[in-house]
Amino acid sequence: MTDWSKYPFVRMLIPFAIGIWVSFFVSSFHPSQTTLIAVALALLAVSVMTSLMLKHQRHYWLFGVVMACYLFMSGYSLTQVHKAEAQRAYFRNFEADARYYVARVYDYPTERPNSIRTVLELEYQFCDTLPSRPVSGKIMAYFAKSDTSFSLRYGDLIAVPAPIREVAPPMNPEEFDYCAYLARKGITGQVYLKDEDWLDLQTNDATLLYAFSYWFRDVLLTSLQRSGLSDNEFGVAAAILLGYDDNLADEVRKNYVAAGSMHILCVSGMHVGIIYLLASLLLGFLNQKKWQKALKQALLLAVIWFYALIAGLSPSILRSALMISFVIIGELFRRKGFIINSIAASAFILLCVNPNNLFEIGFLLSYSAVIGIVVLQKPFYSWLVIKNKLLDRIWGITTVALAAQVATIPFTLLYFNQFSTYFVLSNLFMTPISFIVVISGMVLLLVSWIPYLSALVGYLVWGAVYLMNWVVAKIESIPYSIIKGLYISDVEFALLLVALLLLLMMFILLKRRLFIIMLSVLMLMMVSVTVRIYSSENQQGMTVFSLRKHTAIDFVWGREHLLLADSTLMSDASTVDYSLKGVWSKRHLSSQPQMLSFDEDFTNSYLSKKSNLVSFDGKLLAFWDDSLQIKESLNFRLPVDYLLVYGVQNPDVQSIVNCYDAKMLIVDGSVPHYLAEKWVSQAQTLGMPYYSVGEGAFEVGYAFK
Fold first, then answer.
1. pTM
2. Residues 6+ apart with CB under 8 A from 250
3. Are residues 557 and 676 in the same domain?
4. Which of 42, 156, 199, 590 to pair with 527, CA 20 to 30 A apart?
């Protein structure tokens, strides 16, 4: 029987995390902070009283139940209190009177293709008639590129105009929810600022620790460049060594994703582990006496956290540093810790600091990968007994990659809808090479001030990084290196996650009967997937996507679909990936649909297009051309189900009414906002039903035939 007393943080983490999860999804119930704190304290008091009253060990489960309820309520309460909207000084509560805000640059400004991006923390609000008031809240800011915006630094105070624009929710089905993503980081607004829109107050209010971290990282980045690293090699080295990925080219990033090696570019457990092993080896002489061992552990803690500091204190580095810190502290007090408990302890602390970490994909992937390696690697390794030392090492590296991949499958399928086929091959080469990059890179940072030695070590780092980039490029070029479109529903994700937990428990508890339960859960998931795929054979419908710069209409018939769009859309890969491919994956449609332009006639088994008319599924869709100016109503108006207005066209609903008998006017998302408002206003005046795609995609159909 498993002694769960060895895993106190595991027992604490589970109800605490469930409370956070429930608090996020149960958005209709918002008790006051006082009520939440009162309930949590009452449960704590009950749990303490229960522990004092229990006399027999067989009744101790009752204390566990009450304590679990307390932890559940604590997670729920902490999440509610942590929400930006729950703060009394939240800036939206007073925005009606706002003229401008004083804000602090909260994050390190980064250069994007068309702007400088950073997060601003609002501190004061100024009005015309009322005195200034302190406010709270964070916003995402995009600055037009200029000498002034390039000079922004972390901690600078600036003045920005009101009002603050809200972040738009997803405009298309299965589109990435950027609004929710920012909200989990406490960011509830966004602004685009030209030079004349904001004022630098020539004051810096930076937190000293983070200011030093960013400054020192800039010094080290400059050292890397002086040592001969440039272009893709510099971008990869900066990402691996310092967690700075702003110089990482999109093509390189895509290659690493396809090869299943993206984790190497994130400063995480592997990097911290290498630093720990290297420092421990260098401090090996401090193993003679008791005080020397204590000094060694203290120095190791200092080295780990100093590295975390120069790597920017990112969430991934904090997770890894916390986990290793628990191991070091356990050795310091001569207590051999249980690694699973140390992992749970670090997760518990990070969730206490910020409960929204539970919904960060980096947090989930990091912890699932580490748990998978700790629990599954040894059982996988024991499957084969290899006497040859080289082959045995290769098998060991393979089982590490396999364990991590198995543990992260539910999250990669849910968030990315894809699977890297050759992850084992990739990690077989990348793991030893990345080990060389990290060690040689650390040496390079230490000797960067020595001219000839830094050039020699820099050449070694350049060669190792070049080899890494070459390997992932070759693996990415292999056919079927990455399988995309692997959509799973929320229910299927939950079943897959339960199956993974049962697999982990089977190896932890050594209970084989859990294997049968795991297979049953996987069978239920496969039934759900099969039913969903079968249903997709009978789907039919039309979607007018909401895209600001493009017009796209998707006609779906079973597993086939045809995309009627402007000629520039499919060359805009970022828009297709962000707005279209999610729903295509869900509906089991090809990511490379048959394309049709607006000036092209076409006919197949389920659709016919002639000139500006499209017949599909018994419906008639027409496209409006503003060159037609019908001043008087025609004797026969063409009856159509939908009439679409797209692009920059002068509003003229009266001409449409004179020419067409349309059941609904659809104003496309490509119509500029100021013109869309005029189209809608005229439609309302004439009593014509309308739909503005700028407020969200227009969908019709998708029922069974």
1. 0.81
2. none
3. yes
4. 590
